[in-house]
Amino acid sequence: MSITYLEAIREAQAKLLRDDDRVFIYGQDVGGTFGGAFKATKGLAKEFPGRVLNTPISEDAIVGTAIGAAIQGMRPIIEMQFADFSSLALNQILNNVGTHYWRTNVPVPITVRLPSGGTKGSGPFHSQSMESIYAHYPGLIVMTPATVEDAYTMLIEAVAIDDPVIYCEHKYLYYHLKADKLPDKGLPTGRARVAREGRDLTIVSYSAMMQESLAAADELAREGFETEVVDLRSVKPLDIDTVLASVARTGRLLCVGESFPWGGTTAEVIARVASAGFHLLDAGPQRLNAKDTPIPYHPNLWSVHRPNAKNITAKARALLRE
Amino acid sequence: MLQTAQRTAKSKTKKTAPPHERFLEAFRWMLLARTLEEKLVSLYRGGLITGGVYIGKGQEAVSVACGLFLQKGDIFAPLIRDQAGRSAFGEPLLDVTRTYLGSRQGPMRGRDGNIHRGHPRKNELAMISHLGAMISVTVGALMAKRFKGDKDFIGLACIGEGGMQTGSFHEGMNIAAVEQVPLVVVATNNHYAYSTPNDREFACHDLVDRAIGYGFEGYSLDGTDLTACLDVIGSAVKRARAGRPPQLVVASVLRLSGHGEHDDASYVPDEVKRQPFARDCLKVAEKTIVDLNLLGAETLAQWRKDAAAQVDEAIATAQKEAPPEGDKEDWCAISTRDLADSFE
Ligand SMILES: Cc1ncc(C[n+]2csc(CCOP(=O)(O)OP(=O)(O)O)c2C)c(N)n1
What is the ipTM of this complex? Predict the structure, then answer.
């Protein structure tokens, strides 16, 4: 049997609905026989009547509704149709749910699923990676699973956590990633994973950029370099200890992220490594992000707009030569 | 002494039933709110309050009716000018004074101030500044109650005519009707959003006409008339409880203060202040009391004294309490402490 990243997300939700009466799913087109724009909730409305609900195209109200329900003891899972449209819910996410526990001492356990990142032909408005925006604001946990196993266990953990979780699932990984079976348990949230060991260079990445980084590591291995690849798993909290331990072994750091280059997760990792582990570095830490333009539609443009195995390899080579 | 006795005797003969069974109770909350807010204003003028002071002067009749008919289990989402409603709903005065005066023991513990307060666990939602945002939150709370099988509950959310123009408000109203939750939305048109008059806020004939577009039932209200407020909002609450569609009440008043106490409202022209909607609801209610001889003058005086005493006590208590301290603060924005990011 093989299970895709998308199926893992569906299975996690089925399990959550089965095990916990407080869980319901709320989002555009998630219900009925349709099961969501990407089919992440396919069949769930039928299996769990009244608990997988279609909503109007009202991102702000969808999140607001989930907040109210969570304050009253429910565990809503929201599906944004695309991460990009969560911009319409920024107020509820950043200002309402993000501040609630701090202000009132009442935590708000909502999970917001964001189908994130680029795929061929999706263009400026269906391709964005928003994790760095959400991580910037206090009060939110931001998950960025890069494997089928993490997609499954982290979503289950997201709903169990008493605080709001932004769960960034990557659309490119939906069908590209497969696993033999789903695990019962994963690493806890907040712990990064060394996905590949090496001693010449550390690449830190997350979400779909893990695939590109691992491919780059394969290429670098053919050239005789051993690359350690660290999967952050959640960008907030950020497991800087695992990153520092890796940099201590390799002395060189390259951070790779799919979001835009100004600020963001890769900059955050470098800032923390530079301040806590300056002495560990044999060369200036580097980062690679998408270009500072909207995300292009045409595959020829899109494939070079995002970091990819080829330009990650080139950047790594230059860093290894330093 | 003799005079008082005479007056009592006279009033006994003329006493009539109040125009609404909860009229006097409501009036007393209004009086308390007005007394409290006047005191807050003087503290603000004396430099004793940090941050803004936003009062509900002129809106107490509408507001009190919002809080008064809610029962245990109901959800209340008050806004900027709802002191009367909050008190009637059960918010202790200490919550107010502690929040305004920055006591560590207040519900917001110095982390948020003035009107941005609440007790979500006691069904008094804590508004955020961003207008319109609390409508859908109220909807969600009601959905949760339905999911859990609770019975006989409603929600009531307040908004101004300014806040009615946000996208968030529209989305919230629409989703409320889609979900068919037992919700009452009370919109108070006080004719200004900060300094902006109605003609730059909306262009529809009457805001209540929107009710039908949202799938609500809509009612208009003279917000200066306490009896009308109790009748109309009380009936809307009853209808929501009885399972009718969500209810929209649009009340007309004039904001009888600045937007906040930093604002002298010099942009409100005199002719507006002479409009019928510019009447002071507290004075109107008091006139009803006197005209119908619902209370003796000494009782009224005693109520005022009681209100002042309660307010003074709540202020004195909060003033004695310690403020929060930066180096003792728990700087953690999530409850799952082991998932807090570390920036050391
Ligand atoms: C979305 C949003 N934009 C701007 C503001 C700033 N602001 C606070 S109160 C206010 C006026 C609100 O008018 P209205 O809703 O009619 O309520 P009123 O103050 O008249 O009671 C404004 C513009 C805000 N709080 N929220």
Answer: 0.97
